[in-house]
Specification:
Enzyme class: translocase
Radius of gyration: 17 Å
Strand content: 15-25%
Structural class: alpha+beta
Number of strands: 7
Protein name: NAD(P)H-quinone oxidoreductase subunit M
Shape: globular
Subcellular location: Cellular thylakoid membrane
Helix content: 25-40%
EC number: 7.1.1.-
Number of domains: 1
Number of helices: 2
Strand order of the largest sheet: 1-2-5
Largest sheet: 3 strands, antiparallel
Catalytic activity: a plastoquinone + NADH + (n+1) H(+)(in) = a plastoquinol + NAD(+) + n H(+)(out); a plastoquinone + NADPH + (n+1) H(+)(in) = a plastoquinol + NADP(+) + n H(+)(out)
Distance between the termini: 70 Å
Length: about 120
């Protein structure tokens, strides 16, 4: 095939492409390599541990899909599962909203504020 179609999954915070970046910075379609772009709009504050958890979850989801055809549907399912995983990291406090982001829209829910039970009203 001269011009293979690029398969991709795009959610608010996760982009997965069936392809790889070449030396010129172009995305080249591939049936063998997946490229993951996490939080492309920098909506969250990340630390290395949280990023590694996402990469491990991605690897786990891809491994669970091994043997299945590489289709838009299967790629979207992995992307959707990763999006839910990011929500769980946010709810656990392992990542937080980036209040300096270009747009603050709280797409995964309004931040929760801890209330100190010892405070007197």
């Amino acid at each position: 095939m001269d011009n293979p179609m690029l398969l991709k999954s795009t959610t608010r915070h996760v982009r997965i492409f069936a392809g790889e970046i070449d030396r010129d910075g172009d995305l080249v379609p591939s049936q063998q390599v997946l490229t993951l772009d996490i939080d492309p709009d920098n909506e969250f504050n990340w630390n290395e541990d949280a990023l590694q958890k996402v990469y491990r979850k991605f690897d786990e989801l891809v491994e669970a899909s091994s043997g299945a055809d590489l289709t838009d549907y299967n790629l979207r399912r992995v992307g959707s599962d990763l999006e839910h995983y990011l929500r769980s990291l946010l709810q656990l406090g392992e990542i937080s909203y980036n209040l300096s982001a270009r747009v603050t829209n709280y797409s995964m829910g309004v931040p929760q504020v801890a209330i100190d039970d010892k405070q007197v009203s």
